[in-house]
Structure prediction request, 957 residues.
Amino acid sequence: MDYKGTLNLPKTAFPMKGNLPQREPEFLSRWAEQRLYQRIQESRKGKPLYVLHDGPPYANGHIHIGHALNKILKDVIVKSRTMEGYRVPYVPGWDCHGLPIEHQVAKQLGAKKKETSATELRRLCREYAEKFYAVQRDEFQRLGVFGDWDHPYLTMTKDYEAAIIREFGKFVEQGGVYKGLKPVLWCTRDQTALAEAEVEYANHTSPCIYVKFPFISAPQERFGLGGLAEVEQVSLVIWTTTPWTLPANQAVALHPDIDYAFLRVGNEVVVLAEKLIDEVSRACRLDNPSIIGTRKGKDGFEGMVCRRPFTLGGSGQAQGRSPIVLGDFVTLEQGTGCVHIAPGHGMEDYLLALKYNAETATGVLTEPLQVVVPVDDNGCLTSEVPEFAGQHVLQADPEIVNHLQRLGVLVGQGTLEHSYPHCWRCKKPVIFRATQQWFVSMGKGRLRERALEEIDRVQWIPARGRDRIHGMIANRPDWCLSRQRLWGTPIPGFICTTCQSPLVDVTIIAAIADLVGEHGADVWFQRSANELLPGTTTCATCGGTEFKKEQDILDVWFESGVSHAAVVKPRGAEWWPADLYLEGSDQHRGWFHSALLASVTTDGRAPYRAVLTHGFVVDGQGKKMSKSAGNVVAPQDVMTQYGAEILRLWVAAQDYQEDLRISPQILKQLMETYRKIRNTCRYLLGNVDGFDPHDPAHRIDVHQLPELDRWALLRFNNVIRNVRKGYEEFDFRQIVHELDYFCSVDMSATYLDMLKDRLYTFPKESPVRRGSQMVLFTIVTGLAQLMAPILSFTAEDVWDALPGNAHASSLADSVHLSTFPEPLALPNQDDLEARWKQLLTVRTVVMGALEKGRRENVIGSSLDARVVLNVVPTLYQFLQAYEQDLPTVLIVSQAVLHPTDHPSGETHLTDDAALGISVNVVKAEGRKCERCWNYRVSVGRAPQHPTLCHRCVEAVT
RNA sequence: GGGCCUAUAGCUCAGAUGGUUAGAGCGCACGCCUGAUAAGCGUGAGGUCGAUAGUUCAAUUCUAUCUAGGCCCA
Prediction:
């Protein structure tokens, strides 16, 4: 007779294979139809608000793995806080303005760009941004990210642009906005500023010259070198490849730690880096130089003054005077170790000047260093350098060299072929040239200090983020707000055509903001200055009434930096400041930084209570991903091959505070973890078949449950606590490990394995079996909820498969509408845990013995075994209470206990001295019951069921 | 070159005010089962805790240097 039909074997529609790439889109469309996100928000009305303010990705191209990481992390937080009972809206945003899009559009236009109007170009940029924002939106949704995707914020909408201008107005009102000079890359042919991304590096041959800067300050006393008194002149020797920048010279920089040699050459002394003597001597054919001494850069040079070859710039006594300063950027790679500093024509020069000017008050220099720019838009020297006025700088170079020769300061000359920036459009060499820019002062209104104070009021996760942003804010120069571009928000300023004075006025800006709110920022480009200005506007300086518009747009970091004002604040007082900003660690320099400065300026405090940062995605070797290295992992590919769920699991399983590795091996392993969790759920579901959570007969009082079931519940209680703690602390790794361990060890290998006999062979309605089913139901329901923020698709899949579920019951029709489970109150939980820990240790010893028995062909299945446990008295006392349960716990047919002082046995012995146990494994007594596979002496006693044991006879009759 | 950071089994992660044989899950090998079956169970092998030097009775843990790697800046 076939007794298999009398067993209660697991049964479920829940498939073993997730089939994620196909099934995920089905869940997505169902959630969309259900308007699930909106329903979740409605269901949390009146609950405490938790605001995670989305940092806007740039609307350019498809999403990459870093985007996926960022959005999944946010989604896990949004979902887990929601399931903790908070109201957690998620408003995604996009950064739409800026150079990369403008650059792309200009590239596509090619030669036609010249005939394209500003408005038309902006229209094309807008189209471009719209296209990619939609692409990214769909890709983010595909990841299973919940949010208000129908109402995102875009930095190019009228509202947002108006908000940008209003915030700029507040900056002006605070008084920190000013116009000043700053070097930019400049194409003299196209007469335009270029961004770093708009230059191409190509080989270029430059002159290189060595020029003497004679000391004006008496060096003899300062350095105490006897030889100096005997010579006619002591000079620093500088080296440069841009002779045309010498008129703008303001200083000479030495490295503090480099050794500088005083070289006697004929009847004078020249000073240059000791290590470069040979090279310079060769290049300049120095006649028999001899070292009369060396000094480090920091030993006495700083603040001394040399004579520079041109007298332009500065005023009064500063004319022709070039002080010596110290700079860490000076190297020994080329030149002389003495660097000619022209703040108007070099970034490092400029920053060094700012640094020294800030210290002028402390007396390092007597006068501030000037940002001098004797070069016009065409790249021609101006009348400030009368000798060469009107000549293009690159053409003027040879004549300047001749001039230096005549002055007797040229030490040597040659040419150098090197990599040099060229304009991406006209391919001509570009120059560094300071131009008028808009700035926000870090000093005015104590912006820097206040920002630093705010940093310490914010929670930085990980904590080192605090040091990183603190260092940046402490050291950064004034914020340059202007960009010489079209695709952005205009700086609402004007210039008097009569006297060239700038006009920035709070009232006028407010009016412009209203106009932009109505028409969008295009209005600035479409209307003339007089149309934009109120009719009565007059210049405060000269009384003029004619103005021209400011041509520049705002730095995009300003735009995203004010998102707290454009997006968060308008939604309600309780929204601001946001609870959390979450981005990659590069945003310490970017968004966290600009948002902090913006918010401190306009609102006096940080716009976030906490900032969480993640690392960058690297390949399996920890190397940066790049097309050329061929190690790029695209989220789209992972989704096609494994599903978004695996990507979500990957995010959760990795330590996101460091760099995150991804590789085929890692994904394969995650797939294994996923399968384990999925399969455990499937088995749980299969065994709650026939269980009805609403049937009182199926609900067994916890106190009535056998210890084994209570142990399972207590383990699950643990999981509930740890997983919720993990979400609370943003420690998602812990959650994955917790779920994995619970499914693999506590459930699959322990509880479920022990439970099989009971579930399969006991009568369907037996209270013990129903009790176990109730436990299984509790666990699988809770498991679905606990995994939902990470495994959002699978959790819903499990939810659907719960018996008596969803539509017909009290359960919500989506797991995402539910809240996390609470731990169950269990009697004597700690005691129970301790005792079962002991019991499971005994089990491990027995498993070892059984394995030995298997190897020696005494048994195959563990049910073939009878185990004899010889144990010391204390352990005997403990185990006695479980004697009835031992066959279940050990999954053997028979288990007997023997007290002994010296545990040892003869057959298949396994000793565990520490525990005081030895185990004998022998063939079980009796015959194997055909139905339950246990060996029992009762098999054969019932004539009508000759192959069954007494228990099964009972069960089938 | 400067700032911030990382390095523990094949993989993902634990770990210790410095103190016995450094843990887990997965993977792997071997075996069992065939009533979770493109499943399940068991046993086992894997680590000079990135390298070197120093402090110490004792360092994987502290310090320095180096190597490799990441972000930002120059």
Summary: The two ends of chain A are 14 Å apart (CA to CA).
